[in-house]
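My main concern about presentation is that the manuscript never shows what a single data entry looks like. For the editor and my fellow referees, an illustration may be useful. For illustration, here is how one protein appears when written out as sequence plus structure tokens:

***
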Amino acid sequence: MAIRYQLIERAPAEVWGVLADPYRYADWVVGTAETAPREGDWPELGSSLSYTIPLGPRVAEGYTVVRRFDPPQHLELEARSGLGSARIAFDIRPWGENTLVIVDEHPLTGLGGRLHNFLLDAVIQLRHRGMLSRLARVVEETYPRTPPGGNAASAARSSASGEAGHD
């Protein structure tokens, strides 16, 4: 089991806003591209989206199904590809005015499920590090914070024009 966490400097509803957008999935999930709704209304229970996975000159296809939907606290997914499936659970917790996102992934079927060990967990940890960093960036860029004495419109303009600095 690979568990990793990330503090995102936005409210849980804003994190959920990105998680709930099927067209933003490839923006934060490492290794995926070209996402599209597949069945249902993402991310409601049982809904799914499809995506491509670029593998050098080849492209694999996969899809993800929502297995648990409890906004804005919990989202559990089953990601399926030609290599098997995995359970990916997101726990979204308020942390002051920010959000603590905890992701827990476990291979279910296929090669990952059969060969699951601490080395595979280490690889998943590396992938999660990238995924959670990307999720934080996407959320923070999508929902700019209002600067003291400013308003949301000027914050959005500053962010879009590159005036706002990031440490």
The longest helix spans residues 118-142.
